[in-house]
Amino acid sequence: MHLRRSRCREMELGCPHFSSARYHSAMARQLSNCIAVGVGTGKVEEAATFYEKNFGGTRGKTGKDWIEIKSGPLRFFVVGDENGTPTFDLTVEDVDQAVADLVAAGCEVVDLGGAPDEKFVKDPYGHFFCVSLAESC
Asked: Which of 19, 29, 108, 112 has its CA 20 to 30 A from that of 87?
């Protein structure tokens, strides 16, 4: 199971960056302030200490295989999986429609696990995005 988005979602309830006033159209989309990066199984604590010490920030919530590092408005999630590519969050009002639009624009659907109401895409430049409902953040 991919841990990035589902672990990030556990902390996102009440996320301060979400505001319904920011969503002006029926298919509004917005990047969230969460970024997850896999550091390998068993390396979460080591990596979190490295990021705290060398990049600033403070430790936030933790879970079985993840640690949140807060730095300003950024929420950086160190995750115990093997996919080292950063995963960004894209919040939308309709996940299926947004994914269809992104695929039509050149993105590719990828299976990284996660919660049932979220999907992952890779853009034409190799970056991963978790597409999830705006109200989940």
From this structure: 19
